[in-house]
Amino acid sequence: MKPKLFDAHLHIIDSRFSLTPNNGYLPDEFNCSDYLQRMAPYQLLGGAIVSGSFQAFDQTYLVAALREMGPSFVGVTQLPPSATDEEVLSLHAAGVRAVRFNLKRGGSAEIDQLDRMAHRFYDLASWHVELYADSTDLPELFNTLNSLPVVSIDHLGLSRMGFPTLLQLAERGIRVKATGFGRVNFDVRVALQQLYAANPDSLMFGTDLPSTRAPRPYRDEDIALVGDVLGEEGIRKVLYENAIALYRPAQMPD
Asked: Which CATH architecture has domain 4-247?
């Protein structure tokens, strides 16, 4: 039987829409058809299409991707502080459910806008914040993140040095994406065990496809690792239940 998955972190790269070089980097094409073909081995319940640094504040690709992928998929976008209420509500109607701050690569709003934008978008559209940051930066953000309505942190925080802070945040209800296993510099098995023990509702698995700039891209063994470490209940929660509860897609497949 195909494993069930709500993919909490994926990128769509469609050459029909403009891309912005980030430190000289532009990704290869990875459109909706490419993604669905790659995910054929899974019972795909939906997913979160995440805007990357190379997409900056462009919304056209994301709206088009959400339309093509259907109402079981949601969007995580990047917006400038100048975004109007009307723009936010229009994106919400298209399926966007979160705003991303990319501290690692740029292309998003600056961190000094985090508190104001997080509260504004949550009050307006119930959007949460997603943070792409090295966990070594989390101690100085600790109080701010704890004060925000809902927060998710990408790629297990990336670094061993800041992992204790990430663990404390998870205990306090911050979500953590079990993504980018090839990006981190620590034992993923141990990290998954500790985070799940701290808060079984926190972890959400994502493929991170197409794994742009990752030292080691996603592989199917990454999903198998979750089952090996967390068991049957952990598989359900981490592979789809936790993410569906957070993202609230407009429709789920039968």
From this structure: Alpha-Beta Barrel (3.20)
